[in-house]
């Protein structure tokens, strides 16, 4: 009998946890920041180096660099060609190459890329506005 109650309790907890996650997603809204701009990705040589925010950079995280957006800003980056998107957090400054709007970690770039050999992608940037804040 105790095993049955334990399993039932775990099921209830999991149900409440999934409802909380669904609400957070439901309350998240985006606003267009820039359309049809170019994104590139960090070279592996930057792994382990400090970013402008003081965090240590890792190509295996979902982070990005932008010249003007505040550190900690969440940005939805959508590949215009295939409509794949990823949410990244700004933690660095850049890119410093003319014509590029945002530098993505390799993990973020690969998540939306249509061609793993591409050096840059045309993307849309949307700012994440979480109403829970």
From TrEMBL:
State the Pfam families in the record.
DPBB_1
RlpA-like protein double-psi beta-barrel domain residues are: 40-124
Organism annotation: Paenimyroides baculatum
Leader peptide range in chain numbering: 1-21
Keywords of this entry: Cell wall biogenesis/degradation, Lyase, Signal
Does Lyase count among this protein's keywords? yes
- What EC designation does it have? 4.2.2.-
Q: Which Gene3D superfamilies match?
A: RlpA-like domain (2.40.40.10)
Its biological function?
Answer: Lytic transglycosylase with a strong preference for naked glycan strands that lack stem peptides.
Q: What is this protein called?
A: Probable endolytic peptidoglycan transglycosylase RlpA
Entry similarity comment: Belongs to the RlpA family.
- Single GO MF descriptor: lytic endotransglycosylase activity
Q: What class of enzyme is it?
A: lyase
Q: Which domain of life is it from?
A: Bacteria
GO BP term (any one): cell wall organization
